[in-house]
Specification:
The chain is α/β, with parallel strands linked by helices. Helices cover 40% and strands 21% of the residues. It has five helices and five strands, in the order E-H-E-H-H-E-H-E-E-H.
Length: 126
Amino acid sequence: MRILNFAHPLTEQNLREIEALTGLPVKDVAEIPSQIDPLEPLAPQIETLLDGLGFTARQWQTEPLIINLPSLNYSAAVLLALLHGRMGHFPPVLRLRSVPVSLPPRFEVAEIINLQAIRERTRRKR
């Protein structure tokens, strides 16, 4: 499985937590800087980040991916829309949480959110 990381670097402990939750080995972590130019349109900037990964259409649709979303909410929203278009479904995303009373501050994997399952479950409420 690959992790596309648009946020702070993940630790070795985080990777072990992800492997424990998914039952799959992490074979690659792509560290993708998600800084944007606030004076320029956002969607083309995020699309350029994704294009830079060099994935084929087949890879987007078949590679097991987990996304660590960028912190900027607008970037995260656009990223999810672009990923859905390329993948044909919503990808799973990481949710990290701070470890209480840790010095220096540390983060652990709280859960992996299955956005596609949430979408499918919610469709029944239409």
